[in-house]
Design goal:
This protein is an alpha/beta fold. The protein contains eleven helices and 14 strands. The chain has two domains: 201 residues, Response regulator (Rossmann fold, 3-Layer(aba) Sandwich); 128 residues, Rossmann fold (3-Layer(aba) Sandwich). A five-stranded parallel beta sheet has the order 2-1-3-4-5, sandwiched between helices. A four-stranded parallel beta sheet has the order 7-6-8-9. The protein has a three-stranded antiparallel beta sheet with strand order 10-13-14. It is globular, with a radius of gyration of 20 Å. Belongs to the leucine-binding protein family.
Length: 378
């Protein structure tokens, strides 16, 4: 069987020798292709790999997992259609996906109406604030990313910055969240620029920021190819002002796209990016090391933050099914919400009725790119 998600309409039955052996249906719609493929591709590969691992170890509740997966290519309309299909036609008990904020938001009402638990893989705080009964997520919020960045800036004595943000769902949300809390850190935005998701040159915006007197650092709120272009243009213009990026670019693919100009860039990221630097007494050491080793041996590609989000979503879901004692949507939802002390690749998760993320700022590591690789920021 070919397990690649080759077309948007391809349904995959993963991790089982035959449909008869796959008893618990879990759905997924991720952006394996399209503009968010740097997020969705490692997510899809991770889900396939973990289903094989879990089924080989006996499954959950003595039953195999059947993963029914679609590639929405980053299109919110496709994501909504696939979520509906997963529920009505495929009869899944839960859904993982929404690689982007846009695709996630399009899925949320569908799962709420059908009362199916959904674990999002996207970053915006609006996904879990206010809390939606049937929606959870594994990535840190954009608001948390802003806080981690501003903590680092404040420690470095930065009080005045320039911002450049993508106008897509993630960029707009992070921009909004950063502006809401920046005053708490004694930092002021002197100039505020934006770019579109299809823009191929951000030199004009960066030239404006460079020309603004008093700017001590630059913050780029965005994900996908946009921040890589910003970073390359930043290097081409010879700007020396420190550049901060969001957790939306926390993968080796960003470093490769941005090239040498990425050296010195700082951003909040997860433990997976610095797995080789973790101490053995770090609570995430065993989980992060095992996932990194398995993923890289299976795919031949570096493990990334985004694959880690999918890892935590599926492991959390399977853990919740086991604790619920039955694979029924309402029971699974309740068990997810009751999660305490779940150690994942992204952090240690403690959910509640008022917190459908369950992570705090300690789950973020402040990173710096050095010599084309990740290092802990000073």
């Amino acid at each position: 069987m070919n397990f690649a998600l080759r077309t948007a309409a391809a349904v995959l039955l993963l991790g089982a020798a035959s449909p008869a052996l796959a008893d618990i249906k879990i759905g997924a719609t991720v952006s394996e292709t399209g503009p968010a493929s740097s997020l969705g591709d490692p997510e899809a590969k991770t889900l396939r790999m973990l289903v094989e691992e879990i089924n080989a170890a006996g499954g959950v509740l003595g039953e195999k997992i059947e993963l029914v997966a679609y590639d929405d290519a980053g299109d919110p309309n496709k994501a909504r259609t696939f979520a509906t299909r997963l529920i009505e036609d495929d009869e899944v008990v839960a859904i993982i996906g929404g690689s982007t904020t846009g695709t996630t938001m399009s899925i949320m009402q569908v799962v709420a109406d059908a009362e199916i638990p959904f674990i999002s893989l996207a970053g915006a705080i609006e996904i879990v604030d206010p809390v939606q009964q049937w929606t959870f997520k594994t990535p840190h919020t954009d608001r948390m990313a802003c806080a981690k960045i501003f903590e680092n800036m404040k420690a470095a004595g930065v009080t005045k910055i320039g911002m450049i943000s993508g106008s897509d769902g993630f960029g707009a949300s992070m921009h909004k969240q950063c502006l809401q809390i920046i005053g708490d850190y004694g930092i002021e935005v002197l100039i505020d620029e934006t770019y579109g998701p299809n823009d191929a040159d951000m030199t004009p915006q960066l030239t404006n920021i460079r020309g603004k007197e008093g700017v001590q650092a630059i913050l780029n709120a965005g994900f996908g190819q946009g921040p890589a272009i910003v970073t390359r243009n930043y290097g081409q213009l010879g700007i020396k002002t420190p550049l901060y990026q969001s957790h939306g670019v926390a993968s080796k693919a960003f470093i490769e796209l941005a090239g040498p100009a990425s050296n010195g860039v700082k951003l909040p990221g997860t433990a997976i990016l610095v797995a080789n630097l973790l101490k053995q007494d770090d609570p995430q050491y065993a989980v992060v090391s095992a996932y990194k080793k398995a993923y890289e041996e299976k795919t031949g590609s570096p493990a990334s933050t985004f694959g880690g989000y999918a890892h935590d979503a599926l492991r959390l879901l399977v853990d919740s099914i086991g604790r619920a004692g039955k694979a029924e949507p309402a029971a699974i939802r309740d068990a997810i919400e009751q999660t305490k002390g779940f150690v994942g690749v992204t952090g240690v998760v403690n959910m509640s009725a008022t917190d459908h993320l369950g992570l705090d700022l300690t789950a973020f590591r402040m990173l710096e790119i050095k010599d084309g690789d990740w290092a802990l920021a000073q």
